[in-house]
Amino acid sequence: MRKWGITVVLLSIWMGSAASLSGCTGGSGHTETVSPSPSVSAATESATESASATAEIAPSTRVNDLNMNVRIHLNQAGYLPRSPKVVVIAADEDFPELKIIVENIRDQKPVWEGKIPAASQDNISGDWVSQANFGELTDEGSYQVKVAGKVSAPFKINKEAYKELFYHVARSYRLQRSGEPIDDPLLGLKLLPGHLQDKEATLYYKDEQGRQPVIDVHGGWYDAGDYGKYMPVAAVTVAQLLLAYELRPEFFTDNKFLQDSEKSGWEHAGEAPDVLTEVKFELDWMLRMQRKDGAVYHKVSGGAFPDFIVPSEDVQDRMVYGMSTYGTAMFAAATAMAARIYEPYDPVYAAQLLKSSKKSQTWLNEHPKAFFRMDEGQNSGSGPYDKATDREERFWALAELLKTTGESGYADEMMSRYTDLLQSRSSFISWNNAHLLGQWAAATAANSPPAGKGAAVDAIVHAADEISSRVGKDGYRSALSSKEYTWASNKNALAEGEIMLLANELKPNMTFVDAAADQLHFVLGRNAMGMSYVTGIGTLYPIHPHHRISAASGILVPGLMVGGPNPYMNDPVLEKMADQGLPPAKSYVDELLSYASNEYAIDYNAPLFFTLAFLK
DSSP assignment, residue 11? Predict the structure, then answer.
């Protein structure tokens, strides 16, 4: 239910205990145990910087205090054997140099010992923190960290440390399918097909001919914790999953996640990697959203946000809303990209995708001014996802069409209109900014003009240099500046990591790879909250995500990354916490109704999916 500022009446559903806030003395540093949830009453009282601040560190002045109530924050899913392994020790006040021990859980014998330097203060979290890297420990096994008599969450070192995580993240898309039954034997989750009425959705407004036609827009993935489906989110999600496959096809040969019964919708599914089978389900829905003239509708939803019910119980009429140049451009880009990727497996389908892409591009050429249709009432049951500009998306479309077709006309138009976007600082991927995707396509297209290719390569690498240097200065090795702790901050962190991983493809640099991995460690527990933000992964993770399928079925779907800390307090639950003075990195609550911090979405999981394909 991502509403981006829409006011909504709180639903009368309550699941479990009160929310978890951090900055307390009860996190993962509880003596000899791992605390199940931090205490609300111990929220930090540290003064916070404004949203535009950076993570500057102030040195500790404490000489010695071996009785500090420290907290131990690390990646609760584990580490790859040859990777850096940075643990963060945190407290509410400064502390001196401390001894750190990593011990084997099996026999509790030390396997690595070192020193944690004296603490410095991290302004984004308000914590006093220090770090140690036990990367030289490469033996596979299960371990825990001890500091000042406190013990960490257990973790593993294993070459397949993220195999289970990837499986759940990948299957999260399957479990968001609209219009299909769900029968997951591992989870015991069984759902009847939802929103079959999407086969006969009605256009919300009158079209150019004064009609409100009935449109078949069935299928696709539910966007998030509710049951809306949105073109901009679909396009950037599809793009990131396909880009992961395009760059790491061998990874997907070894990592299957669909059952045979879940592949029945495509005759080539038996020979194609699972990721292409799953993404095709979303692409098919996207194709249904295209008008005959090439323009693309904006979204599909009901007229009201449904209660916390399973999809088949939401029987309200469904409507097709809006249309935009930026959404049409994103469709053109994603389908052009998909055309070249599907061609080896299904040339007929690939040709359909490319034809649809070119049709949208023709419509865009005929409509050069940015346009977003907004009708009164269209956001009463779904998020706006509105955007007044479209240059980044038009740029992306041209770059993908150039990369797929090699036609010089696309190169000429790209160079004449978007030189500034080729060379400007790369922005991380989001539903409202496809800049990086355009730069990447331009940098790697065989027929890209040398000047454009060079500019795009330089822009991506320079952005990665800047981000990686920031990672080294942050108390938790996050890539986020304070102002990037917004709605979907966890996604933002991993999306910054994507920039560095792509830069590494252009100019190999292990600093980029390690800093991108740091973002994975960050969302999996090495953060100020001391929790994994992915359901079912680690020791402490969200148990009340804003996710209707989980809430209504009573089965917590694993592999869902929630939005994370959001100091802008964009929902009523967070608003009630505003007077607590929480730092940006701790403005999070594990409550069902906090859609601005505790909701999952398909585009949140996309950079997580992408990152996992690159770590080995």
Answer: P
Total count of domains within the chain: 1
Backbone φ/ψ region at 39: left (φ over 0), alpha (ψ -120 to 50), beta: beta
Burial class (CB in 10 A: 0-12, 13-18, 19+), 249: middle
Residue with tokens 């220090």: 130
Which domain does 491 fall in, by range? Answer: 163-525+598-612
Assigned domain for 126 exists? no
**Does 332 fall in a domain?**
yes
From the list 236, 34, 295, 312, the residue with the least C-alpha distance to 154 is 34
Residues 405/385, Cβ–Cβ less than 8 Å: no
Separation of alpha carbons 329 and 336, rounded Å: 11
**144's tokens:** 């825990």
pLDDT at 40 over 80: no
Q: Which helix (H) or strand (E) holds 403?
A: helix 391-405
To 5 degrees, how large is the angle CA 375–CA 377–CA 380?
A: 135
The contacts of residue 262 (CB under 8 Å, 6+ apart) are: 174, 277
Q: What is the pLDDT of residues 526-546, one digit of tens each?
A: 999 999 999 999 999 999 999
What average pLDDT does this structure show over 428-437?
A: 98
pLDDT in tens, 132-151: 999 999 999 999 999 999 99
The count of other CB atoms within 10 Å of the CB of residue 117 is 14
Q: Is residue 46 part of a domain?
A: no
- Asked, for residue 544, whether it belongs to a domain, the answer is no
pLDDT at residue 2, rounded to an integer: 54
Write the CATH number for 419: 1.50.10.10
Residue 137's CB: how many other CB atoms inside 10 A? 15
Q: pTM of the full predicted structure?
A: 0.90
